[in-house]
Specification:
By secondary structure, the chain is of the alpha+beta class. 42% of the residues lie in helices and 23% in strands. α1 packs across α4 and α6 runs antiparallel to α7. It is globular and about 65 Å long.
Length: 269
């Protein structure tokens, strides 16, 4: 059983700047690999596989050695290989009927994967080539770490640790032991309906914050087209409104199962 734990990282300025550079490197590798595959198919009708691209990574590092982009070699080699795997998955999705892979844009490329060699200690995480970073320990980690993804969000950096842990199956004799059971039906109109007849309404947090969201967007749109001012207003807007919506949704989603489990009841969804 694979279980994912998400924690917020507490980075200093140098660590944050370094991760920003790594995002740019992985995006460069993705776009370069996509260009190579497109050109190879247009000229020679040849399919360049992921393993062919991996063999070209050392040449790419030598190409930019001594140039302003010589920080390509600073990124973990396995993270660069994961970028090529991500491109290969995009092509596989295209062959199954999805859209053709697009070039990665700066504002939408926001994650780096570390498949191995991640160590979690008390209050800090060791990432390859970055060292120890502090994090907010919101809950205990259980299982063996299989992969790690570091993501940039609107309010900071987060890490998602995918761990392999044992599956804890609920006993079918919970009712015989005196433990009450409750069934939860997740819906669309209502958030959930219990087997006891209780209905929990959908809070619709976006509608509640729609006025603040509209005012913040109008404030950004009315500004003069000066890059520094626009960027600052966009950052202010992103930190005040979407962050509040995400916090409300996360708190609501975490409260519901805790409330039903607080009475010692088993849950069936």
């Amino acid at each position: 059983m694979i279980k994912t734990y998400k924690y917020k990282l507490r980075l200093n300025k140098s660590q944050s700047h370094r991760l920003e550079q790594w995002l740019g490197v992985t995006r460069l590798v993705y776009n370069t690999a996509l260009s190579v595959k497109i050109e190879a198919w247009k000229k020679n009708q040849k399919n360049v596989t992921r393993f062919d691209l991996q063999r070209e990574l050392p040449e790419l590092k030598k190409k930019y050695d001594g140039s302003p982009r010589d920080w390509i070699k600073d990124v973990n080699a396995q993270s660069l290989q994961c970028v090529l795997k991500r491109l290969d998955n995009a092509y596989q999705n295209f062959f199954r009927g999805g859209g053709f892979p697009k070039y990665a844009k700066k504002g939408k490329w926001n994650s780096i994967e570390f498949p191995q060699n991640v160590i979690v200690e008390e209050g800090r995480i060791w990432l390859p080539k970055l060292g120890y970073v502090n994090y907010h320990k919101s809950r205990d980690l259980d299982g063996i770490i299989k992969s790690t993804v570091v993501t940039k969000d609107i309010d900071g950096w987060y890490t998602c640790l995918s761990c392999e842990c044992e599956r804890n199956l609920l006993s079918s004799s919970d009712n015989q032991r005196g433990r009450p059971a409750v069934g939860l039906d997740m819906g669309v109109v209502h958030f959930l309906t219990t087997s006891d007849g209780k209905v929990v309404e959908n809070p619709q947090w976006l509608n509640q914050y729609s006025r603040d969201l509209r005012l913040a967007q109008c404030s950004v749109a009315r500004r003069k087209r000066v890059p520094v001012i626009v960027v600052k207003r966009c950052i202010s807007y992103a930190n005040c409104t979407p962050k509040s919506i995400v916090a409300e949704r996360t708190g609501f989603m975490s409260y519901q199962p805790k409330w039903y489990r607080s009475g010692g009841r088993s849950i069936t969804v």
